[in-house]
C-alpha cells in the first residue's frame, strides 16, 4: 500500500473551553431531549457529571461535531473550521515560531509558482 506524508502547512488553531468564544463554535443546544440525553450518556465516561452547557457545536463541511472541553478548533487551508482532539492535535501539529502568514496553496493566487521550492509553493520574491 502506498504511503503519504502531510505537506507542511501552517494552520491557525485555538483551544476551546466552556465559556470561551471562538468563531465557528456555538453552544450545544439540541431541542430534542432524547438526542441531548444520548450525547451526554456517550460522553459520561470521559466527562463524569457533564451537562450540555459544557460542550459546544461546530458546523463543518461534513456535518456538525460536538466540541468537548480542550478540543482545538482548527481553521483549514480554505477557511473551514473543525474540532480536533488534544492528543491528535499534539501528535500532528507543533507551534510555529514566527508570525509569518501561511503560504498559499499552489494555484490559489496569481503569483508564479517556484518549482524549486518544497512542494512548488509560491515564491515570496517579486
Characterization of this structure:
This protein has 126 residues and is an alpha+beta fold. It has 2 domains: 12-95, no CATH class; 98-126, no CATH class. The chain contains 2 helices and 6 strands. Strands 1-5-6 form a 3-stranded antiparallel sheet. Strands 2-3-4 form a 3-stranded antiparallel sheet, with no helix packed on it. It is elongated. Mean pLDDT is 75; it is low at 107-126.
Topology, please?
Layout (H helix, E strand, L loop, with lengths): L11 E4 L10 E2 L5 H11 L12 E5 L2 E5 L4 E4 L5 E4 L1 H7 L34
Antiparallel strand pairs: 1-5, 2-3, 3-4, 5-6
Essential attributes:
6 strands, three-stranded antiparallel sheet, 126 residues
Helical coverage, percent range: 10-25%
**Estimated radius of gyration:** 19 Å
How many helices? Answer: 2
Total discrete domains: 2
What's the SSE pattern? Answer: EEHEEEEH
What is the strand arrangement across the widest sheet? 1-5-6
First-last Cα distance: 41 Å
Number of separate strands: 6
Uncertain runs are 107-126
Largest sheet: 3 strands, antiparallel
State mean pLDDT (0 to 100 scale).
75
What does the overall shape look like?
Answer: elongated
Strand proportion, as a percent range, falls in: 15-25%
Structural class from helices and strands? Answer: alpha+beta
